[in-house]
Structure formats: structure tokens, C-alpha cells
Amino acid sequence: MSAINPHRLSVAPMMDWSDRHCRYFLRQICRNCLLYTEMVTTGAILRGRDPQRFLDFSDEELPLALQLGGDDPADLARCARIAEEWGYTEINLNVGCPSDRVQSGRFGACLMRVPEQVAEMVAAMRAATRLPVTVKHRVGVDELDSYEDMARFVERVSAAGCNTFIVHARKAWLQGLSPAENRTVPPLRHTEVYQLKADFPQLNIELNGGVTSIDEVEAHLAHVDGVMLGRAAYHDPWILAGADARVFDRPAAAPLTRRRVIEAMQPYAEKVLQIPHGSLHAVTRHMLGLFHGQPGTRAWKRLLSTRVHQVGAGPALLEEAMLALPREVLEQPALSLPK
Fold first, then answer.
1. Annotated binding-site residue? 223
2. Where is this site: Interacts with tRNA (predicted)?
3. What is this structure's pTM?
4. Of the listed 22, 79, 97, 110, which one is catalytic?
5. Domains located in the chain, CATH noted
């Protein structure tokens, strides 16, 4: 078999969601896709009280990219070296987040205005580590939103040594729209991402934004090198269940079922409860969407949302919650999903 390219499908970095427990859970559903951390600022790693909280992960989460937020080349280079020491697969630079907090730190989507500075940052990271350095950006920002503007950005940053660009196919409005609105209000511009791949065939171009199913992933892969799923994969994680077979041509040795996923999470939850300040809720909050749209999903969510906070709640709660679900849903093989 040929080597796996995890960039064919990835799950986006999502603030407050893409923590290590979420990533471990998603890895039980899709073995080959690339996972991302939440965005971590260089300050949190270099000057924070508890950088381990942001950096720690288990080997089962690999392949895993660390997404960095920052604007200082020297700080980013130091973080790149740390990422390599910790064993990450690659490093991603955030040039797409439009939040006020990120703007006040002079990084995120506002950096699309200064491609020379982004190139300097990428070059510094490339010089500091053997890991791949990638960039996630928007199709445009404010009035700087023509295809030509984006192409110039990619051309300059790629010359500094970045070979992979993950493009959120909506522009960012830095004033007037909230981060949530920036994910939905600006229209999708998928064809411009396709054009970017056509104009830069030597680069790895990945599409992000508005993708909600593996059917759509396969359609986009006819035009780009990879596709990134975002909140759709969080709210309905089972959409990833057919990806190993359909996107990577690597079906699991045994049929994947939701029951198998839950059974894999039980010993993991037990380990989490054994660490200081570990909680069952920290794990199960990411599992609420596992039965999205299926019979029994309300009972599943209710049990995990309410009973999880009771004194003595443990992994056995997952077993109890499964009893509220129809057996045919629990044991539906992933490969039976419609193609």
C-alpha cells in the first residue's frame, strides 16, 4: 500500500473543543485523518504558567498538528522547536482567526495584510525545526479580498518554505462580524480555492469551510489536495466513520460501530479520572453528538449531560447510556453508510 497522506482529510482546530479528549475520541472514529490542537498562542507556551496543559497529548492522537497563534518570528521559532521535542507531526500557523482578542495580539486573519511578515515568520520556523510548517488562512480579509490578493499572499509565503496552505473559503471581516458570523455570513468561494490549486500545482492546497459530509469531501478532492472538516465533524462525529475506507482506502480490519467507539472510550475515561482534577464530563462532553439524528440520541445526551456531574460518576455511565439506544443503531457498521 502507498503511504497515507493525512492531509486528504483533517479536522479543524476549534477553540474550546479540539482538546486532547476530543481528539482521542475522534481518533476512535477515523484512524488516518490529521487532527489539530486548539490554537495555542506563543505566549501561552513560552510565558504561561502551565504550557503542558496546551501541549500534552497521547500517541493515539497522532498524526497531530499544533496550531500556533503569534506574530513574532523568534517566539514562533522557539515554539516550533518545542513542538518537535514534544513529538507533534507538524506545525500550523493561524492566519485566519478574526476574533477581537486575536486581532489585539496582531495575529490571525489580520496577518493576511502583511505577507512579507508571514513569510518571515514561516522562514524562522522552518529554520528552527525539521517538522513541516503549514499556514491556515482565508480567501481574503476586509477589502483585501480579490483572488489576486490571495494568490500574491500564497506566492510570497510559499517562497519562504511553506508548501501547504489550508484555505477557509470565506473572507474575514475584522470589524462588524463576530467570529461565529465570520463562519457563516461571508459567502463561500470554493471555486477560488480550486483555482489556487490550478495556479500553484506544486503546492498542497486544502479546502475548509461549509463541508458537511464525506460525499462533499470526495467531490472537493477532485479539485484540491485535501479537505478540512470543522464543526460538522464535532456536532455529528459519525460522519467521519466511513472516511478511512472512502478517503484513505484503508478500511478497518473489523467493522467500526458506535458501540466499539464507546467501549474504547471507557478505559480512557478511567485513566482521565485518575489524574488530578480529571473529570468524566471533560471526556463525555465531546461525545454528545455520536448519535446525531439517530433514535435514542435525546436519551443519550440527557444521561451524559446530567448524570455525569453526580458524585461517583464513572465510565460505567457510558455503559448505562448505551442501554437507552436501539441495538441496531449501536451496532450499525460504518461501511454500511451510503456512498
1. no
2. 94, 183, 298
3. 0.94
4. 97
5. 6-246 (3.20.20.70), 258-334 (1.20.120)
